[in-house]
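Inputs:
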Amino acid sequence: MKQEIVTGILLDEQTELSLNDLCQACSSSAEWIIELVEEGILEPISYQQTQWRFTGNTLQRARAAIRLQRDLGINLAGIALTLDLLDEIEALQARLCHYE
Amino acid sequence: MDYKDYYKIMGIERDADQNEIKRAYRKLARKYHPDVSQESDAEERFKEVGEAYEVLKDPEKRASYDQLGANWKAGQDFNPPPDWDAGFEFSGGGYTEGDASAYSDFFSSMFGQGFRSAHGGARQEGFHARGNDHHAKVLIDLEDAYKGATRSITLQSPELDSSGHMSTKQRTLNVKIPKGVKQGQRIRLTGQGSPGQGNASAGDLYLEIDFNPHSLYRVTGHDVYIDLPLTPWEAALGASIKVPTPDGSVDLKVAKGTPGGRKFRLKGRGIPAKPPGDLYVVAQITLPPADSDVATELYKKMQQDLAYNPRSQLGYKQS
């Protein structure tokens, strides 16, 4: 039996997502995404509010932000700090892995 | 079906008050949150704690759970007594906050019924809603990121049948993994999530890329690292060495006098993303053992004939 192979879109730095795409993928309101942008947690490619576009990898960060808020009850400033620290840990671990 | 000891999972006594339960939950949630935790079984533990909290934080659910008695042991085979829930009424709020499919059979057998009927009833004629998005992880090898691959993934999703009952449906999907993917990236498959209701469109499926650990290579972003063991004479005299890469082997020129730890960058031979990453070959100078007469003689000769002091920076003279 011939099986169908589905092809998706790779959400990398080259892919652009609209505000609406992000809301849908995160099952969240536009207001929440806008709050994340205003806190500096997410960064649009350009800041023209009427047509915010985000790079594909923004989705990971947005979803992590939502999980942190929903599961741990962290506020926006706390989420920003947590995500920055997690990025730092990841960078340090990558360096560490070269010495091990 | 195994009995779950929610108090034990939360590390609290059976008579803990609601504040204690909340504190215990917060603490464990922070410890095992999959975004934050370094524990290998974090996701599993986090779900377990979430399920325990879902029951214990709600006085109604907790009371009916407590009614089962304290004599059950975790893991013991459990069947709910026929009328265990008589006299209890669950005023919604159940499942709604969490991901229903993530909870255990034990949970579903106790609290699942109300959820099912409530949802079945809520389905109306002419109601349109976009289907939910689904998120899943797919494990690939580094080689797949170089060449592209097809992966068959099995998804389990809860679905409502025509009579409004929840059932878990399995389906298999063959997905093309494009060349150039990096750790943690997502692939969006439009329309492969839950079907929409009414005329609305289906949700999307997001696949998170996760690499299997590799015995030779380490991956950072789109760069790839490999350790290259060298003999002292190759490093000292220079050599041309065959180095494996995920894309086939290459000949690497090791310069005369290469110190251990030196990185050779092979531009564009990392993961072929846009822009492509680099492959770093890290020189590792190995010590041949002095385990034969010949080897011992050679070392002794070097000791006599070479005026080499690796400790010249330490501030004292070689004795």
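The longest strand of chain A covers residues 5-7. Flag for discussion at group meeting.
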